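Hello forum,

I keep getting stuck at the same step: I have a sequence, I want structure tokens, and every attempt I make locally crashes halfway through. Rather than fight my setup again tonight, could one of you with a working pipeline run this one for me? It's a single chain of 406 residues.
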Amino acid sequence: MRAYERLLDYVKYDTTSDENAPEGRFPSTESQLVLADHLAAEMEQLGFQNVRRDSFGYVYGFLPSNCGTKQPVIGLIAHMDTSSAACGAGIKPRIVKNYDGGEIVLNEGKNVVLRPEDSPCLKECLGMDLIVTDGTTLLGADDKAGIAEILTAAEILNRRNIPHGPIAVAITPDEEIGRGTNHFNLEKFGADFAYTVDGGKLGELEYENFNAASAVLIVHGIATHPGDAKNRMKNAVLLGIEFNALLPPAETPEHTEGYEGFFHLLRFEGCEERAELHYIVRDHDRKKFEARKAALRRAADYLNEKYGAGTFELQLKDQYFNMKPVISRHMEIVERAERAMRACGVEPTAVPIRGGTDGAMLSCMGLPCPNLSTGGFNFHSRFEFIPVQAMDKMADILVELVRAEE
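Reply #2:
Ran it on my machine without issues. Output:
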């Protein structure tokens, strides 16, 4: 079975994770367990040993070495959940054969069109077969494509009897909400180093990422009748707007790129009496990251002094940290990935992740774990797509990655 065929199977399962689920609920959505059981059964059919789906929804499996030389235990990891940024249920994928470079009508009735001017990456996909959505849901290639490529590589290894060392595979839940490694069993996984297969454009190789935090600002206002509000009402909505205005307007996702960090207002809701602002805070540089969190605290302190103690309640929570300090001590595993890509005719490109992966947390937990591409584009949106040929190539790269070295 080819990788894209597996992807088309996996996207039938709605595995949207829920960031509002209680911390004690793991995984955050029961539907993830359904795909987890399906994947465990498939891994057993492919010849994996010690396959287990634990109570938290993680799926582990092991391919024993088939060569006579001592090789490291290499881990391959992908996540099963999808982002809540777009609907993940009722996905209806289709394949656009031999893409000609023009517009792709995803949904004629709803006038949803994938246009090259909006997605310049389409220019890189001329002549390829593109798996697209019907314009009402995301596709789920992030990261079901990674799962499909890993299991397809395992099938190729077995079918062709390619010499390899021991391989540990893990499929994780809840990566999209930053909980993907909360219950990851490093000891049972048993890898010496690993790779997440959770990136974008084919050939991208990532070993540095944002430091990340979430911030929730609760504004406590005073509601009164607007006809009798002078010098009495404290409108929590307007106070929330005032807080946001204290942040640098050019330091938002839509105005930054590369190594530039940002404050991102995800959600703002409320009324005169109470409002909530939900942010994420990101920066590659640890000192700048800490400075960003300090800026939020200063803004809240300033406004509490202006409007009264307790008016602004700020909750800050670290989510993950940059993996680069760990990976920089193990660059041989990055070089191994580069060799595998070049062996398959793909030139590797090291890029900083403007986000995070399970690999970032695992690296900080002691398992060096850079991130590899899947070949997809426009993740977390109705315009998500992935070329069939990129998935085939990525499966071949994973085969080369784990091939036994002398």
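The chain has a mean pLDDT of 96. If your local run keeps crashing, start a new thread with the error log.
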